[in-house]
Amino acid sequence: MAFVKDMLRMWAHSWKRFISIAMITLLGVAVLTGIYAGCRDAFRSTDRFFDAQGLHDVQVLSTAGLSNGDIAALRKVNGVAKVQAERSQEVTFDLDGRKSATMQEIGTNGIDQPYLQEGRMPKKAGEIAVTRKFIRDSGKRIGSRLTVTPESASSDTSDTSDTNGADGTNETNGTDEAPSFPTKLTIVGVVLDPQNLSNPDGYSAMTSFRSTATTDYTFFAPSDGVTGTLYTSATLLVKGAAAESTFDESYENTVKQVTDRIDGTVKTDRQKARRQELLDAGNKKIADARAEADKKFADAQSQIDANRQQFNQQVDQIVSMQAGAAAAGAAANGANAGAAAAAGATTPQLDETTRETMRETIIAASPELTQAKQQLDQAQSQLNEQKASTEQTLKTKENELKTSIPQVRWYVQDRQSLGGFSALKSDLDSIQSLGNAFPIVFLLVAVMMSLTAMARMVEEDRSLIGTYVGLGYGRLAVASRYLLFALLACLIGGGLGLIAGFLGIPAFLLVVLQGMYVMPGLRLEYDWLYGSLGIALFVVGVLAATIYACVQEMRQTPASLLRPKAPRAGSRILLERIRPVWNRIGFLGKVTARNIFRFKSRLIMTVGGVAGCTALIVCGLAINDTVADLGIKQYRDIYQYDLMVVSDDSDASAMRTKVASDGRVTSSLDVRIESGDLTVAGSGDGDSGKAGSSGSESIQLVAVPEKHLSDLGEMVTLQPVSSGILGTSGVGKTGSLKLDDDGVIVAQSAASALGVKAGSKVRLTNGDGVQATAKVSAVNRNLIGSDVYVSETYYAKLFDSKDAKNTKNSKSSEDSEALTWNAMLAKLSGSDTSQTDYAESLEENSSVMKAVSCAHMADSFKFDLMGAVVALIVALAGGLALVVLFTLANTNVSERVREMATLKVLGFFDREVHHYVNREMMILTVMGVILGLPLGRLVGGMLTMALNMPSLYFEVEVKPLSYVIAAVATMAFALLVQLFVNPVLDRIDPISSLKSVE
After folding, report:
1. pTM for the full model?
2. CA quadruple 676, 682, 687, 691: dihedral positive or negative?
C-alpha cells in the first residue's frame, strides 16, 4: 500500500510531464483520426446517397443512339442487375442571353433518381424539376413557366434519326425516332442531381476548371409527353456493387468485371448490328422510294398512253372519213350508179403506210392536232427523263449509303467519368493523403519528447529506485510506476484526441466540404477499430521510450543507484579549439556554449523537436503557397493567350468571322480541340470508356496547323520539364521546346500522374473515339488541365486510318485529310475586366460553344478545401510546437535545479537567472528553426508530390514570407513558454536544492 501511495504522490508531483505527454498524444491522435474520420464520413454519406438514388455503376453511350436490341443485349450480360434506357434532349432558352439545358427523362427502373429538395416530383407532361443552381441563376420559383427550343442537333442520335432503321427485335417499329420533349414547361420541384453534388450556394466555383458539363443546366421530366424510340444512353447497376463502398478498390474491381464483359463481346457485336440496322433501314428507304417512284411513273405512263390512244382514235376517225369520201367521189364518175352507192356505203381498206401518211398529213394540216401531239410527246419525254434521273439518284444513294453511315461506336463508362464524382473523390483523396502523412511526424516528436520526459523522471528517482530494488521489489514492479504513468497519460490524451478526432476536426472539415458539395444524410461516425489502433500506436511509441529509459537506469546495481550519478567528465567543445573566436566570448557566453554542446542528448532532443514542429508549419504553408499560385502560374505565365473560343465544326467559320469582326484580337492561332483520353501503353486496352481506370487520364487534344507550328510558342509557354526529387522538377529554357511531326507534347499534369516522360509510348483517343499509339516527344510545363499538343501531319498519321475514314461520313479521300479548325487561341487588347466581359458576350453568340477568358480563370481559381486543411495542420503544428517547447523547458530546469540554486547563491538576480536559462533555450530554438526550415521544404515537396489529382500538378513553392511566418511563430512559442518557466525558476530554493543527496 505504501508503494502505491508513493507512486501516486510521485505522479502528482510530475503533473507537468503528465500534461505534456497527454497533450502530445492528444494532438497526434487528433491528427491521425481527425482528417481520416472527416473524409470517411464524407465517403460513407455520399456512398449511402448514391445507393439510395441508384447512381449508375456503368453508363453506355453510342454515336448512333441505342435501340431496344442494344438494351436487351445489355440485360443479358452476366453481373448486370438492372438496365435503364434513358432519353434526353438538349434545348435552349433565353435567360439573360442564350442558355442551354439537358432535358432528362426520369428513369422508371430506379437508376439515377433525382433527390427531391423542395416541391414535388413531376408527373404530367410539361412538368419539370430543376436544380437549385437554375433557381438561383434564373430567379424563378416553383410554379414558374418556361419555354424552351430544341436544338437542331441536340445529340448524336438526332443526326442519324433520319436514317435509323427498325430494331431487329422490335417488329412493330418501322424507324427509330430521336427523343422529343414538351417545350412549354412548368417548374414543380427543386432536386439534386446525384451525378453532380456541387453546391451552387457555396463556393463550388473553385472546381470550374474541372467542369465537364456540356450544358448549363439539367431539367428532369417524367416519361409522360416524351416521344421517340431511340435512347441516348443506357445506365446499369452491377450485382454486388451496392454492397461495396463506391470509393474502394473492391467496388472498382466489381464494376470492371462487368465493363470488361461488355467490351469483350457485347460492344463489338452490337456496334456491328446497329450499323447493319442503319444500313438495312437506309436500303429499305431506298427500296420504298424506288417502289413509290415506279408506281408514280406507271400511273403517269398509263395516263399518257390513254391520252395518246384517244388522240390516235380521233386522227384515225378523220383518216377513215377522208378515205371514204375519196372512194365515193371516184365511184360517182362511173356508169353504174348502183355500184357507186354500194361503194359509198363501205370504207375502203388502206395499207398501213398510206394510213400513216394520211395521219401525218391530217395532223400537219390541223394546228390543234399538231399542238396535241407535241404535248403528248413532251409529256412522254419528261417522264422518261424523270425516270432516268430518279434511277440514277437511287443508284447513287445505294453506292453512298455505306460511306455515309459512320461506324457505330460505344463508350462504356463508369462513375469515374462523372465530373462531380471524380472531383469529390479527388478532393477527399488528396486530403486523406495528407492525413496519412502528418501523424508520422507527430508520432516521432511524441516518442522523442516522451523519451526526454520519462528519462528525466526516472533519473530524478534514481535513489528511490535503488531503495525499492534493495528492499526486494522486482524491477518490473518498480518500472510499472513509470509505465503506468505514461500509459495513463497516453490513454487520457488519446481519449481526448479521439473526441477531437471524431467530432471536432470532422465537423470543421465537413463544414468546409458542405460549402463545396451537397451531401444529404451526412453524419459523424466513430470507428472503433481505427480509433483504438490510433491510441495503441502512440501508447506503443511512448511506452517503448519509457521502457528504454527504465532499462538504462535499472540495469545498474542497487548500490550504484543509491549513490548520486557521477558528473560527466569535463571535455572541450569544438568551439574552444577555435581560439580567435573563443577568446572573444564572455564568461557567460562560454558557459552557455558548453551547456549546449556538452549535453548532446538535450541538444538533439531540443533541436530535433523544434525542427520537427517548424517543418510541419513550413510544410503546411508550402502546400498553401503552392495551391494559391496555381491559377496565376497557369493562366498568366503558361497560357500566353487571353481568350480561347470553341465552336461546333459546322459553326467554325462563323465563329472566326464573328471574332475577327469585333476587332479585339491582336493575334490569333486557329487550332482543333477535341476531348480524348491518354493511356500509358501496356497499362490496358486504352478504351476511352475507362478514363477513370488506372493508367488513363482525360485530356484536351490540341491539333495545330502545319503552317503555324512555330506560332504555338507565342500562345503557350513551351518549356520542357523532367521529373526531379523532393517535389521539384527540372524546367528547361523557355522557347527551347518545338512541336514537330515526330511526336506529341504532353502536359506535365498528365505526365506526372501516369509516369510519362519524353520517349514514352502512349495510346491516344481522339474526339471520334479512334485510338492510336503515339510517341511522346516532350513533356511541357503545365499545372492545370491536361493538354496534349499534336501537329496536323502527325494527327493525320495517327488517326487517318481506314477505320478513321469511315467515321468521316461521305468525305472524299482528299477531303478526309483536312481538319476543321473548331477553336481559336487569341490575344486581346484591353484590361482584364474588358477581356472577361468580352468572353461572356461571345458565349451568347449562336456560333460559339465556349469562350474562356484566362484573366477570369486566373482570378477565380480557388481551392478553399485545401486551404482549410492547411490552416488546420498549421494550427495543430503550432500547438505541438508549444507543447514540445514547454516539455523541453521544464525538463531543462528540472535537470539543473542545483545549478540554478548555485547561481542564486553566487548573487545572480532572478532576471539574470532567467536570462541565463532562456538564452540557451532560445539558441537551441534558433538552431531548430534553422534546421526545420529546409526540412519543411523537403517534407512539403514530398507530400505535395503525393497529391496526384486529375488535371492538376502541384509545382511546389514556398514563399519567403512563409519561412518568416514559420520562424516567427516558433520563436513566439518559445517566448510564450518562457512566461511559464520563469516562475518555476523564481521558486527554486537555494538552501533545499543544495542539500546533500545523502
Report:
1. 0.72
2. negative
